[in-house]
Fold this protein.
Amino acid sequence: MHEYPKFIQLKNREQVMLRLMVPEDEEKLLEFFKKIPKDDRLVLRDDTTDPAVIKRWVNEIDYDKVFPVIAEHKGRIVGDATLHMKRFGWQRHIGEIRIVIAKEFRGKGLGKVMIHELLNKASGCGLQHIQLSLVETQAREVKSFERMGFNKVATLPKYVMDVTGNEHDLIIMTTRVSDIWKKMEELIQSTEIDIIRGVQ
Amino acid sequence: MARTEIRIAGFGGQGVILSGYIFGKAASLFDVKYATLIQSFGPEARGSACSAQVVISDEPIDYPYIRKPDIMVGLSQEAFTKYCHDLKPGGILITEEDMVSVDENLISEFDHYTVPATRIADQLGRRIIMNMVVVGCFAAVTGLLKKDAVKKAVEDSIPKGTEELNIKAFESGYKHGLQILKQREVQETE
């Protein structure tokens, strides 16, 4: 298992601690989700302002099922990213990621680092595909994930109904974990190529 | 320790040079030693074989080529056969268990360790990380560099997203190395 906690410096030089979620995070998580802008909460899968939902999450922590990385800044949770894995069935090689970042910590590179943590975990535990779901109003997030190597593979029109009853297109994005390993293969091969070039 | 000469030899695609690079980086960046790496010289690089020459020293290194290595890592039969005679008497020899068949008479004067790096890497899910298993075993049996320094060098040298599995491979190799040392300790006390 990758070692936590680890400390990262964001683009604005603020330091954030990354660690795994623990049961003691219940109150901090509740505070975190309460401060997420209402518009962002429209399409969350759970009612994260409900203490019972958060209680269930922290009581059911199982890192082999859901790998939850928390970003903490000055004792406050500012990011929650999770990798969801199935142990059995036709989706056992697929991981799904979900991420929520505090508004004031967006655009500072935190999301990218947290996604990297999840991809690293996915790669380490043998998953082959990673998928995530967004709605069409999250155009900025779609662009960010594309820059990280994710591709839009499907759009389901008017598939999502937000908490106010409005319908949205669901965008499904995926990436292949093996693409990450291509860089490793290139690294190994390129050093060997250099030698051959170096022979007189 | 004044100067330790290391040769890592195998064939293309085994991560021979990357392993040498990691040892050098561990020594010079994450430990307080000096290191040089010569990737390969001579006609052997034209074929499939390749080798890395690493020198690690407590003092600045004035001559980066190896003469009689103190440690040799052999990852292919061809490389082993070619270079094992160069190893210093009493030197440490690490070979890949399934890739290299050794004549015990030939290596009786060496301190020989084997590591099933390819098999371990396969069990972890990716053969490409076999060199990290070897790096871990090397760190354990030679004790030349601090484990943390080598581990940091591994993390610092690999693509993002591959850390977890590469570190697992490193730790597996390290564990294997420690097990061999422990077995020897037990045999010696019996």
Q: What stands out?
A: The CA atoms of residues 75 and 159 of chain A lie 38 Å apart.
